[in-house]
């Protein structure tokens, strides 16, 4: 029977892959698929290529760990995301060498030591014996195939039949294009880049009331109930005005509600302090200007995001999108 476990430490990711654990595979997709998607698309790829990178890196880690002792002392996130960057660079060097040469993989904070970078390079280059009767690998491949459509949506719609609905929609869209001429670009682009999810991870020592409020806020935020989310987060901020997560998600909620000036006030506070949400706050400040059609200030805030930030690839993708709309 395939094991299913709760993640207690970063080695559980490797052990879960070796056991083809549904819980671990699902957690990896849930936490990292969006980041890999934005990275690949931001550097000229498409969703199908992003899905391929994601799957090939997981299988490479599995194959390598099955034949070598692979002990993580660094966090899994920079380990896996750096491996995906390196894999995408390899793909780019084969397809578009000139652009591939300009892409320099960089492990997200808190970074990787030389030993873990070596693990990744060896795993991607390793060509050892892959047994045909490896039932665990076959089970893992089936899981990845199932997860692909769930997280990457790579299946295209049939093109042999064009419904009347599609034709009518196209006609309406063409008519609306003229009506939206004065401010056409920012609305669709905003929707494309504004999606995020509030994750609440219980931290040891965290006050029980705060933990419950964060859980309630996350549930509310992820269901799009932004007004209620703000009410809950305000309870946290009343007790702890420096709570970065509460301040950040309040700012995001305000952007979604169109309260852009208020949103920028909260996001500005988060950006001014050092926290995991610092550059995400810069990105959503950029989106707030995008939402009101101020392309210049949107770009200025995107430029504040360094290439070491996990949100960097998404910011790069947005800049390229805006350049195409220019």
TrEMBL record:
Gene3D superfamilies: Tetratricopeptide repeat domain. Keywords: Membrane, Transmembrane, Transmembrane helix. InterPro entries: TPR-like_helical_dom_sf (IPR011990). The chain crosses the membrane at residues 162-182. The keyword Transmembrane applies. This is Tetratricopeptide repeat-containing protein. It comes from Chitinophaga sancti.
